[in-house]
Amino acid sequence: MTVDRRQFLHAAVAASSTFAFAKQPAAAIEPIQRNGKPHLRLSIAAYSYRKYLDLKAKPQPTMTLEDFAEIAAGLDLDAIEPTGYYFAETTPEYLARLKGKCTRLGLDISGSAVGNNFCISDPAKLKEQIAHVKKWTEHTSLLGGKALRVFAGNVEKGDTEEKARARCIEALQECCDHAAKFGVFMALENHGGIVTTADQLLSIVKAVKHDWFGVNLDTGNFHSADPYADLEKLVPYAVNVQIKTEIVRANKQKEDADLKRLIDMLKQGGYRGYVALEYEAAEEPKTAIPKHIETLKKLVG
To answer: In DSSP terms, which residues pair with 251 in a beta bridge?
Structure first.
């Protein structure tokens, strides 16, 4: 075949535009093939302790990523997710030290996360976003992480969702090609913007269709009439899960998430992988997180 990849991607996007807003439930790439029984391993996202890890805190943060790893070990977790925002340095030497620290504590690094926007219309700025994600793919690989959480982005003023989605798809494809060299999954999070709904996100999953691409399933990010039904659509394509203790239905206040229902959903979908608690509720994290971890341990079994 002599079809140019750019032409192919734009054709895929055009097809997905109708797909994304169809009344019937969206189809997508083939679900991830998983052998054996469901197997859930608990991790915790550094974002859960953001007020302590914030690098902008004065005179300095009260918690380091090494401290965070110690806390996770004390909670008897399987892994941590050290989010990109909280790295004071990213030299190979520092990444090796953090990985070694986790190894000595018996912890895996489930992955990392980086802030990005693949909807940007300025070619030079979009290129910078792609380079940023590629660099963090390499950092994640050095840490031994399995996946890098990435974002789609928001439609700029004066732009259209169709054009923004096309740029996002092409950027993801390029990043997945790079990630394949380092053994790291690109995990696209359902995080508003052009992936506000399950069907919007699945339209991108279908268009990218890469062996090193999947969904980061964030259980608190759908604000629809039935978030649980939307989340269930994505379980077959999840390569990483962020579990939150609250959900928000359309036009309603926050409510406690049904953690049992969420864990059962993952088990019924045959999910095998990390489930990272990303705590965002109002209660003091150091008090609340241990309680939620104990609940999750019982549910995971």
So the answer is: none
